[in-house]
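Limitations
The structure tokens in this dataset are predictions for the assembled complex, not deposited experimental models. Users should treat interface geometry with appropriate caution, especially where small molecules or nucleic acid strands are included. An illustrative entry is reproduced here so readers can see what is and is not provided.
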Amino acid sequence: MHVSRAESGGDPVGSRPAGAGPRSWYEASARQRLDLLLDPGSFAEFLAPPDRVVSPHLALFDLPHQFDDGIAVGRGRLGGRDVLVAAQEGRFMGGAFGEVHGAKLTGLVKAARDLASTPVLILFDTGGVRLQEANAGELAIAEIMRAVIEARAAGVPVVGLIGGRAGCYGGGGLIAACCSALVISEQGRIAVSGPEVIETNRGVEEFDSRDRALVWRTMGGKHRRLIGAAGTFVDDAVAAFRAAAIECIGENGAIDAAVLAAEQERLDTRVQRFGTMEDGLDIWAALGIPDPKSVPGMPAETFIPLADQFGVNGHDAR
Amino acid sequence: MAEWQQNRARRDRRIEAGIKLAEGKIVAAGDATRLLEAVIQPGDRVCLEGDNQKQADLLSAALLAADPARLNTLHMVQSGVVLPAHLDLFERGIAKRLDYAYSGPQSARIAAMLFGGKIELGAVHTYLELFARYFIDLTPHVALIAAVSADRDGNLYTGPNTEDTPTVVEATAFKDGIVIAQVGEIVDHVPRVDIPGDRVHFVVDAGRPFFVEPLFTRDPALITETQILTAMLAIKGIYAPYGVRRLNHGIGFSTAAIELLLPTFGERLGLKGKIATHFALNPHPALIPAIEAGWVEQIHSFGSEVGMDGYIRARPDIYFTGSDGSLRSNRAFSQVAGLYACDMFIGSTLQIDLAGNSSTVTTSRVAGFGGAPNMGSDARGRRHPSEPWLKAGADADPVSPAPLRRGRKLVVQIGETFGEKNAPQFVERLDAIELADRLKLDLAPVMIYGDDVTHIVTEEGIANLLLCRSPAEREQAIRGVAGYTDVGLARDRKAVEGLRARGVICRPEDLGIDPLDADRSLLAARSIKDLVHWSGGLYDPPSRFRNW
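Predicted assembly:
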């Protein structure tokens, strides 16, 4: 599946004069994304800013808290259909999961499980667990993963949208892997260990985190789309994410043993095909892409048909 | 009988000692240390080329590997103390005394070594001052320089990052010193001759390019809305009324924001062609949209910038280029251009005190001066008039008869009231003073003296210090734009309102600017990739600035 250029209305990033053209997903805040993603005026927030449900831990570290603990959750409509939605704010502590932040998302997904009919959208923008409340954060990740699987077992599509500044790292990467569908832009990144973590643990020879082109060839949106880790690639425009999300919530998100087996097989095949390769460029060449070096510079409208032709498309899995 | 050619004889003996290791002038990289041990004498003044951008990195490593029993107590006279090896030389005793201009990345370590007595400090200079002293009392005996390529006669191609090389070579070669160049490759014909071969005695084939730091690349993705607001204030409140066309920009994010607002905000104000047309400036990638939109007529550069070569080659109407088509930079000439031919300098700093003195040192760091004090000072020898220079002069001195009144260069400090890591930009007392006490320096390292500063821009507004008539007014004008810093909170509110009424302080609303309009959508480019698109794919950014 892909969203065509006409639907997304998107020019390649930057070819438009500033102030004109579609609104960038990457540039937008969590609340701006919600505003523009959902049907106009349909968002109703749970635990809204006036409720001031904030982290009980940050003050111990002399750190400022934020009125929403870096995540907005609520319900709204998307293409006329009711949805539950959560948006992480990557600009507050890198969108990291703390106790309250995690509990808000856990509650939302559990509600979806109980309703068993309302799709969930998670607008990821996170570096992973917040170090200052790591135990609560790690527990939250586990709870959210369980809730996502339970919701999907109840037939609910859980769709992840990834294209923010912080990417989707750490526990965010684990939760994303549980979703029924992922939509990603070039700016989006999915991984568990981030570039700096890999470099710190395994050395700069293993992974040079300052080589950002390498980071993007390893974790970036285009690579994740090509190897089938994300099903849909979109231009960095809120409208493009909206069109893709509408399609994804219409798909079957249910999970059962057959889907899990297919997912396991997909991952096995991936390791067999690409496991020994050193660089994303090698993988893209192995996929049969004629000029792998040209992929990073490619505008979305060129990349999307290329990915449809050469990339791994694994929709029976996930 | 007097002997008048001792230096020349000494030079010839040095060449003779080195020539055994060379084939013609060419020396293998593996023999670099032996070459230096043969040519350099203990106590020599040595210029190890390197500044805030390019580095003779192979030669600095080779010098560090020398035997301290043979090479010691050198007096290093160099623009930049930037590589760890530059300071390791002092740890090993190979070098003893230091005269330099810039030490950005080593600022903490150099402070510790100065404090610990490991380095005997001559002085911290500006680039231009150090270059000047190369010709008076700090002439190098040996210069270790870096070039892109050489031919077998020693003709050097220094390429886009020519920077300090011509100055260093001029001072060394014409005073019977020895010039040793590391080059990336030996070629039959160099693309252009930047340094004639008769000024070069040895060429070390490094087999790889010299190191260059991409110093002037500011990722538009990191520009904040507060920086955009300060940029809007500067454009509408200073560039426009003074009609500033010839200028230099510092390297901070606020000036990058100005560059990116010219084609949007500036265009809307109808300022195209009226401001920001001629620059003494490195090839900042952030200026690409303004160039493409037809704002900029000409740029002369101190150095080049990583990834800009293709773009520069395609825009020779804008940049200074050589017969090979690539940029020719020259730090000394560009510094002179910034000093004498520009009507404005605008840049950021770390600390400003109540008199307007500014400094980029903190108590534990000595970053050096680089070029900012020359850019950011009034040139007392200037004699040619221009509209902004005369207008600034009239602001400062409305009384003297116009024909006898000096103009003034506009020296603008721009920044947020709370800077990086939320450190206040405004302080009662500069950390530089404490540092000078600790290191027993005669002078506190002040980057720009208060009497040279004409305007301070923060998100709270513009303070025009030219219009202040007493130190007390000046202090209140500074407090009046210092926001919620302690300095700002201690303002005399009535005095500040009086200054505002006189136009000494301008708030955003006084200029018709709504702070809520300061939005990232105003930036002509919001990412490095946007800059690549603006350049038509000609700008090839270093990997560390990419997010694709």
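Some entries come with short summary sentences. For this one: Chain B has 19 helices and 21 strands.
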